[in-house]
Write a structure and sequence with these properties.
- About 35% of the residues lie in helices and about 25% in strands.
- It has about 220 residues and is α/β, with parallel strands linked by helices.
- Helix 3 runs parallel beside helix 5 and helix 4 crosses helix 5.
- The longest helix is centred in the last third of the chain and has 18 residues.
- The chain binds adenosine-5'-diphosphate (ADP) and magnesium ion.
């Protein structure tokens, strides 16, 4: 579980304080499907970056599986992130010129894990997102919807506890958006992976069990039972 306590983020711009959000507290559990929503520029990506330890909050703190070390905190969070969080982005962020398989294995290359151990897992996750037959294709030949499915497979490769998806359907048409959302829903329900999903889509908000509405001083959390 990731526990967020009283998190705030602001910037000082030309001597005045610009608040993105204040006093934000919530939990991310493996059973959760959480939506983060709000106008462009309100701080949705910044919130994901803070929770992943890529940016610092202005105040507040975060506890990861019961731990919130004072010393070597950056090291602790980056190893927590590598092990437990998969990421999906609006622009897919695949490496062109590499095969589908190599793109899916990227997190394994980066963390220096033993590659052969993950080959079978790569085929398994590609099968899960319906892209197994493209394993040796160059990602450049794929459509947007297919690229995002490869990005989902890559996010799953190391069996994370959570997937953070930052506007993953913003560059997709309606049919592909719905497919990506339904795969994320399936991952949440079948594999017990907590999803944190940045979106403007009302239909996604409808089936999230928690919605984080960000709007500087009016930030609030809607929880459904
Ligand atoms: N280093 C910085 N200094 C000042 N403002 C910043 C800095 N980094 C980001 N911002 C501002 O923070 C706001 C939130 O950005 P972001 O989290 O990307 O918003 P969203 O994802 O909701 O569109 C933006 O208005 C951006 O300009
Ligand atoms: Mg953003």
């Amino acid at each position: 579980m990731i526990e967020i306590f009283n998190l705030s983020k602001y910037y000082i711009i030309n001597g005045s304080k610009k608040v993105l959000f204040e006093g934000l507290s919530f939990e991310i559990k493996e059973s959760d499907f959480i939506s983060v929503t709000g106008e462009s520029g309100c701080g949705k990506t910044t919130l994901l970056k803070i929770i992943s330890g890529i940016e610092y909050p202005s105040s507040g703190y975060i506890v990861y599986d019961g731990f919130s070390p004072k010393f070597f905190r950056d090291f602790f969070i980056s190893s927590f992130r590598n092990k437990n969080i998969g990421f999906v982005f609006q622009t897919f962020e695949l490496l062109e010129g590499l095969t589908v398989l190599d793109n899916v294995l990227l997190p394994v290359y980066i963390s220096g894990d033993f590659i052969p151990k993950y080959r079978e897992r790569a085929i398994e996750v590609l099968n899960y997102v319906g892209m197994k037959e493209y394993v040796n294709s160059d990602v450049r030949i794929l459509s947007g919807g297919q690229k995002q499915r490869i990005a989902l497979a890559r996010a799953l490769i190391k069996s994370p506890k959570y997937i953070f998806a930052d506007e993953p359907t913003a560059n997709l048409d309606e049919k592909n958006s719905l497919e990506i959302i339904s795969i994320l829903e399936k991952i949440n329900k079948e594999q017990n992976v907590g999803i944190v999903f940045v979106t403007h889509r009302q239909d996604v908000l409808d089936y999230s069990n928690k919605i984080i509405h960000i709007s500087n001083s009016k930030t609030y959390i809607e929880e459904k039972k």
